[in-house]
Amino acid sequence: MAAGGTKSGSCVEQGKVQVCICVLCGLPTAGKTSLLNSLKLSLQTLEQVGQLKFAVVGIEYDSLLSVSEHQEVKEWKLARRQVLTLVRNLIPVLRQQTISMECPDGVSCETWSKFGPVLQEVTRLWNPGITQVLVVIDDNMYLRSMRYEYFQLSRELSTGFCQVYLEHGVAEAIRANQTRGSVGVTCASIQRMGQSLEPPDGSRFWWEKQSITLQPFTEGHIQKVASLVQTALEKPSQAVEERGAAPVHSELHKADLVLRKCVSSWLAECQQSERKETLQQQSKKAHEIKVKVLTALRNSSTSRGLDDEQIQALFYSLVNHT
């Protein structure tokens, strides 16, 4: 891409490649892959967008993961973690404009082989004029915790970060999914996603401020996404977090994610053991303890420094002795 000068406050020094992670989210058939393909076509053909031009690298979960209805949750999470690991290792490659990348630890041979086309795409993109690379995460990403992992990665590697939510109702998603035949997902899966869907909300979660909501994709959305990416490049995740009370919100959100896992694990343990309480009573108890721990963390400056293991220990200490 043509070098259109690097603005002050951007992610990296002038002359280096800037990287932005853009997470797409929404129900199946909302138009996420169509948006990705149009971004590639528009931005990789050197279409001018302000002063910035982008190379676009797509990370399509459907191409990298083998998902079945009978897959264990643990296996599903492990597969998704492998994709995150691949993206973490890909970003330094993009910054250095190299084509050398070895299979990271923890990534299976099968997943690594499926990642081959991504590396081939990266190789085709390189030219001396490239200064910005947009890494588009194409997946449903219907849970905030899924997207937060990529925000954490962007903060760790000081990249830009933004989100595009393609709004699409459950009924519309099911109708459109029926036209996909064998490659579609089950109606039950779409309904489950719809019930659990957590759209980006920058008013409640500071790290989601760089987000936009679009109706199912149309060509007119390219300029909106490009403008969002430009803003994200000028305000990298690390810099955004350093403002005001943002670190506190970050710690509390991280603690909330840890406690959610604690609640799920504890309830699973209860189901396997013989306890007098009903599942409803156990669930109420666990969530009350979670709120109690979060309140303590929010009100105490010393408690906010607890790591994941200490938060887990605090939860189990209270839930098992209350």
Descriptive notes:
The chain is of the alpha/beta class. It has helices at 32-43, 61-64, 73-96, 109-114, 116-125, 144-157, 170-177, 187-196, 221-234, 237-241, 246-272, 279-299, 308-319; strands at residues 18-25, 55-60, 132-138, 160-166, 211-214. The protein has a 5-stranded parallel beta sheet, sandwiched between helices. Helix 7 packs antiparallel against helix 8 and helix 12 (279-299) packs across helix 13. The chain starts with 17 loop residues before the first strand and ends with a helix.
Task: Describe the structure using short key phrases.
322 residues; alpha/beta; 52% helix; globular
Q: Oligomerization state of this entry?
A: single chain
First and last CA, distance: 61 Å
**Helix share bin:** 40-55%
Order of helices and strands: EHEHHHHEHEHHEHHHHH
The coarse overall form would be: globular
User: Strand percentage, roughly?
Assistant: 5-15%
Structural class computed from helices and strand pairing: alpha/beta
**So how many helices?**
13
